[in-house]
Amino acid sequence: MASRRKPPTATRKKSAALTLSTGATLDRTATKIIRQGLLDFNKAMIGPQRFRRLWVVARDTSGRVQAGLLAASYWHWLYVEWLWVDEAWRRRATGSQLLRRAEQIARRRGCVGVFLDTFSFQAPDFYRKQGYKKFGRLAGLPPGHARIWFHKAL
To answer: Strand, coil or helix: what is 122?
Structure first.
């Protein structure tokens, strides 16, 4: 486990004022500065994240995508961002196969666990059946439903 380090100190003088801006988009240079600033801070505090993407995709015999999972491993955990299965392939263990394959790869990458989130109208029961434990719930997101977070030790 990495020891805690002091965050990087700023080398510039404090300015007298800042101008705030808002919008739905941001130029590449500003995006890069903000992203790199956060990555540098995190690395100084706990070490490199070793971020790696993972796609697991299921295609039918014609090559058409019928299901897929997008995840990323970092700091010895796998985060499942998306898991989707076409209606025709649901309740046929397709989602279970995608998740198992991602878990196998996560173990090979040295991950100690998997975490993900879903909505109450999506698949909370599916994840429970796969051995995932609920660790958070935000009622009212979206209205009338809830966002639920799950994790599983590997």
So the answer is: coil
Which tokens is 4 given?
Answer: 């805690």
46 in any annotated domain: no
CA distances 48 to 9, 45, 133, Å, are 18, 9, 27
Quick one: pLDDT at residue 98? Answer: 98
Q: How many distinct structural domains can be found in the chain? A: 1
Q: What is the DSSP string of 19-73?
A: -----S---HHHHHHHHHHHHHHHHHHH-----EEEEEEEE-TT--EEEEEEEEE
**Would residue 37 count as lying in a domain?**
no
Residue 16 lies in a domain: no
Residue 48, pLDDT score: 87
Strand partners, 151: 115, 133
Which residue range forms the structural domain that includes residue 62? 52-153
CATH code of the domain covering residue 116: 3.40.630.30
Within-domain flag for 27: no
For residue 7, what pLDDT is reported? 55
Mean pLDDT by 10 residues, the chain (154 residues): 54 74 95 94 91 98 98 97 98 97 98 98 98 98 98 98
Residue whose token pair is 């100084």: 44
